[in-house]
Amino acid sequence: MDENHLTTEDLDNISALQAKKDAETHYTERPKSQRVLAWICIGIMLLGIFFYCYWQITPLT
Questions:
Q1: Which helix (H) or strand (E) holds 8?
Q2: In angstroms, what CA-CA distances link 36 with 30, 31, 43?
Q3: To 10 degrees, the CA torsion angle through 7, 12, 15, 17?
Q4: What is Dmax (Cα atoms) for the chain?
Q5: Long-range contacts of range 38-46, CB-CB < 8 Å, 24 or more positions apart?
Q6: pLDDT over 60 at 2, yes or no
Q7: Which region, left, alpha or beta, applies to residue 17 given φ > 0 means left and ψ of -120 to 50 means alpha?
Q8: 20-42 pLDDT, tens per residue?
């Protein structure tokens, strides 16, 4: 098949093969350590926001 003279049917076949290849690509999960660290960072940020708000509303005596 000469690449300079591809028909629309050839292009459709190539496109379908590429779509099939892309559909077969599987999601690779992140390591558990990264997910745990992400949750710890989210928790630290939420605690920081909570304590910052608490500090703002607490009257100085």
A1: helix 8-24
A2: 10, 9, 11
A3: -110
A4: 86
A5: none
A6: no
A7: alpha
A8: 877 777 778 899 999 999 999 99
Nearest to 36 by CA among 44, 48, 24: 44
Residue 41 tokens, joined: 């960072």
Question: What distances in angstroms separate CA 12 from CA 1, 5, 9, 15, 29, one per listed residue?
Answer: 14, 14, 5, 5, 32
Q: Which two tokens stand for residue 60?
A: 């100085």
* Whole-number CA gyration radius for the chain: 27
CA 6 – CA 4 distance, rounded (Å)? 6
